[in-house]
Amino acid sequence: MALPLPLSRPHRDDVRIAMIGLLGGLLLWALGVTGGMVNGVGGRIFEGAWLLLPLCAMAALELLRRTAPPWALAVGTLVLIADQFTAGSFATTLMFTDLVYAAVLYGTPAAARRIPVATALVTIAVTLGFLAWWHRSEALLIGVVTGLVTFTPATTGVLVRNHREAADAARLRAEQTALLTEMDRTQAVVAERARMARELHDLVANHLSAIAIHSTAALSLDDPDTARKALTVIRENSVEGLAEMRRLIGILRDDSDGSTGAEPAVAPTLDGLGALVEQSRANGLDVTLGFGDGVEALPAPVGLAAYRIVQESLTNALKHASPGPVAVAVERVDGAVTVRVTSPYGDVDGPRVPGSGAGLVGMRERTALLRGTFEAGPESGPDGKVWQVRAVLPVGPAEEGVTG
Question: What is the pLDDT of residues 166-186, one digit of tens each?
């Protein structure tokens, strides 16, 4: 297997380590301190300044400890062996231990797994070899020194590498958690804005539609009685719309400091459909309301969604329906509440209010949040063509924890 050659400049810390190792070795040589691992075993072949060659070579390899750790370790092993044939230098041996440590720390994951095993085997082999050769207990000292030079820095590198990888993994998890938290926050903000948009539309559209239609009628007809009736409806819808807006503002207001002194009004439920129908009749619609069995005591999200669907359907009937009866039916069948609103479909004479389509979107979103089904469109009926809105809202585990 070919070892990668260094292509980048040495790290500045590696340069410092190389300079310290070289200067330390020169100082020890000047003081006459040597330290070959096998000095005295069969004599030394190269005396004197020969130890400077391995010293300089090992210092040069320190420059590659980070950029090419496998290559530096392989060559460093040969240099250490060569150093044993000279008087030897402690600095050369210490720099070799650093190369072993760096090879595990900066090398590939495979090298980090193999080097500790290889150094352990080398330590065992050297110890057994010298025991077989010398037959003396001093051979154990050679094994201990070999382990300190090879196996100890390798295991230290493994510990440091594992610690760094664990820290990197923890940092990555923290970044991912922060990203997911931000995504959740953004989604929550978007969902809340959509919810408030539905609420605002449902609260205002009904009253403003009635105001717009009756004000147009009052302006277009030169009849004092008609104008007075229209102004009465306009006033009633203005007052009720203002009350609804105050309720919504009370919900939106931050009441943590207790400055408002009052709780916002409770969200409407199916119990308020009677008043809603009466208001629609006052606005000019011919509305009938029918309740099936089992629609009492519905969960709050289901009750609110059903109320808003009926409210928006009546608003659309006021704006777009032809003259004729409007039927509202609410029934509970097979664990679901079905809301059905039908109104005459055809050309409208007289004033009408243009629509944006936001009402249908809001009703569809409310139904989808409860995992229900929603349909709206023209259909053929016994009295002609009608526009039908039909929503099926599950009542049970599917809607638990869902808010309108």
Answer: 999 999 999 998 888 888 888
